[in-house]
Hints:
Layout: E1 5-14, E2 32-41, E3 44-50, H1 51-61, E4 69-72, E5 77-80, E6 82-84, H2 96-103, H3 108-113, H4 118-127, H5 130-146, E7 149-155, H6 162-178, E8 182-190, H7 201-218, E9 224-229, H8 236-248, E10 252-257, H9 265-272, E11 276-279, H10 285-294, E12 297-300, H11 302-308, H12 315-320, E13 325-327, H13 341-351, H14 356-362, H15 365-369, E14 388-391, H16 398-401, E15 408-413, E16 416-420, E17 425-426
Helix pairs in contact: 5-6, 6-7, 7-8, 9-10
Amino acid sequence: MNGNIIIKNASEIVTCSGFAAKKGPTMSELHIIPDGVVVVQEGVIKAVGTTQEIDIMLGKSGFDLAEFDTIDAGNKAVLPGFVDSHTHFIFGGDRAEEFSWRLRGDSYMDIMQRGGGILNTVRATRAASANELLQAGIKRLDSMLSFGVTTVEGKSGYGLDLETEIKQLEVINHLDGIHYIDIVPTFLGAHAVPENFKGREDEFIDYMTAEVIPQVAERKLAEYCDVFCEKNVFSVSQSRQLLSGAKALGLKPKLHADEIVQLGGAELAAELEATSADHLLQASDKGIRQMAQAGVVATLLPGTAFSLKEPYARGRFIIDSNCAVALATDFNPGSCFSESIPLIIALATLYMEISPEEAVSALTINAAAALDRADVIGSIDETKQGDLVVLDSPSYKYIPYHIGVNSVEKVVKRGNLVYDKEEGGMKYC
């Protein structure tokens, strides 16, 4: 696998061109090239243009076409690889029973307060071996790849103690080294209050800040630090303390913000210049405006609102407020047990007043920006990594139109064909 590939005759190349997050009206600018060709050499995009333009370039450049694999994308659309910038994909056990409880009317927070929810998964994850978590992670990543995901963020947060948080992060880092998908690790030790710290939340934040985060930082196990800033979980002041301590040790801040109640998480994200603030179902107008001014990406998770039967985040308002919007699955065992990219796009377009064009930007260039990688991935631009998706349809518009059905036919990672639905799925080297 040499990273050399040419995708030719595409009905459209949806470049999503850019090297930073798109905001406001620019989220609708996909920079589509009809009858397009993409040339990737040694894993890096070398050229993108129309068939005529690339034929002329190749004729003059001295490319040895024999060194390149070729994909004929006739009557198919080509997009950047999708970036899923918010997931919790490493965990033990399941919460299928709790899903049934929610269907009968129990709320997510009620279940959590009586020891279920996140704490249920904490118990199962603490009991799972690293190898069990690794094998489960491989299966989940394989599924994500089939949906066109080429980069994913993976959070810890199902340990709430030093040993298990480190175990989760070590598994995530190991998977990054062995799987096609690039994985961005995030430390989420303050995901819930563990049973042995009930009523002593300040002490738990002190423990995380003084004992766990320094170990994570010293071992370089995470790039980001996240916190569940929510009523009856962690307050704004507690979240500020944790994220400020993590930032001082080199971990960039992210927040679960204003998901259940309007607490001020969006305002805190702007204050700390977080890379992203996520969920935002209840975020205030002021908080959204402050995030826009601070350059914080608003990562919206419609699959979670759908699963919990909660009101959706105000996608249209947030975009119109000139805040960069990303979309992600929030794949996790409790509130959104789904890695389906087409479902996320369908929900965003049907229920959040987000256009298909904005949804594509939100899962490519803006999702890359939510991981501080918009200069490397997220668009089909020369010098960027050759991460590409070939659809089985002639236009990106089929993704929301064919509701919840996977339109991905092929996935290219760093110039190598790593998934082909027509040939049985995963391509192993």
